[in-house]
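Field log, afternoon session.

UNIT: design team B
ACTIVITY: writing a sequence onto a fixed backbone
BACKBONE:
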């Protein structure tokens, strides 16, 4: 294969544009002899004559014109590469891969991606649903660049492999059947539901979250039904089969900050008062990578969405003042 030297190709293109070795040397801050030497080296490397005598001057051979046609394509591609590289360095181009748990995708990731597509269309974001254990395995092996999980299942802030950023304190509301006696109870507390049949997963994070929240409120929940799918939970609550804790990020219409109390047909969502539990959402990146421009753009967009959700006030069913203020988004 011929040796296509970019520097020498630029000299050939300049000679074609300016017409003389002297003008080419002046434009490129070289001596005429250096121009001639560089072009002689290029001709030798390509194995074709590039210049021929034409009176007291030289002109390009047909082979040189053929070379230049391909060189023009190469230079145009290099210009595009320079532009894309500059965009990457500014965080305006490139690709960032996110692993996130299911409810975080519509609540946080999708709105962030929509905003980035508007403000930084050259920055591509690839999303992969993954619960905490899988997400951190993907992050460690380099298959994703960012992992979103609940703080309880994330590496500690002292983990040397990962940097961690707190995104959101997600309140947990309670889903009640529409005709439940406590559906309109003023100042409803989690402790008021100690005697109710509960619906939550048989194992995993949501089982642990529900059990811990109820125990913190002073009782152990009686698990009447086991389900992890939110559609199944909504259906059972609507049928009067029990009550359930619901993260605000999992509420219907989660693409926008939740307002009101409706959880769908037959379900009332109530904001809890004094003993309202929360789950904490964090983002993690491989330590040292969080400063990469594209990743920084994505993290900033996620923080913006999280702050908007945290600042949205939810109206309790009893018409009282909202019990929860916006949590602070801060670095862990």
């Amino acid at each position: 294969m011929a040796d296509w030297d970019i520097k020498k190709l630029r000299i050939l293109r300049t000679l074609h544009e300016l017409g003389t070795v002297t003008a080419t040397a002046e434009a490129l801050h070289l001596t005429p002899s250096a121009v001639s030497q560089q072009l002689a080296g290029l001709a030798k490397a390509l194995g074709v004559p590039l210049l021929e005598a034409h009176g007291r001057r030289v002109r390009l051979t047909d082979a040189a014109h053929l070379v230049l046609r391909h060189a023009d394509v190469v230079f145009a591609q290099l210009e595009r590469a320079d532009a894309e590289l500059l965009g990457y360095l500014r965080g305006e181009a490139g690709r960032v891969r996110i692993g996130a748990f299911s409810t975080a995708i519509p609540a946080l990731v999708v709105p962030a991606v929509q905003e980035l597509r508007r403000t930084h269309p050259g920055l591509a974001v690839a999303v992969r649903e993954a619960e905490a254990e899988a997400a951190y395995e993907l992050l460690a092996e380099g298959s994703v660049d960012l992992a979103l999980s609940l703080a309880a299942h994330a590496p500690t802030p002292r983990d040397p492999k990962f940097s961690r950023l707190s995104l959101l304190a997600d309140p947990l509301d309670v889903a009640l059947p529409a005709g439940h006696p406590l559906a309109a109870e003023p100042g409803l507390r989690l402790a008021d539901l100690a005697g109710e049949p509960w619906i939550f997963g048989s194992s995993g994070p949501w089982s642990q979250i529900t059990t811990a929240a109820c125990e913190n409120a002073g009782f152990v929940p009686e698990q009447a039904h086991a389900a992890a799918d939110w559609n199944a939970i909504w259906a059972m609550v609507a049928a009067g089969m029990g009550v359930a804790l619901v993260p605000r990020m999992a509420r219907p219409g989660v693409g926008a900050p939740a307002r009101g109390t409706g959880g769908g047909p037959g379900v009332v969502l109530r904001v809890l008062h004094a003993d309202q539990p929360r789950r904490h959402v964090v983002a993690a990146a491989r330590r040292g990578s969080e400063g990469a421009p594209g990743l920084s753009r994505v993290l900033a967009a996620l923080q913006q969405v999280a702050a908007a959700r945290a600042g949205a006030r939810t109206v309790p069913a009893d018409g009282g003042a909202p019990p929860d203020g916006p949590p602070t988004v801060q670095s862990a």
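LOG NOTE: The radius of gyration is 32 Å.
NEXT ACTIVITY: expression trials, pending approval
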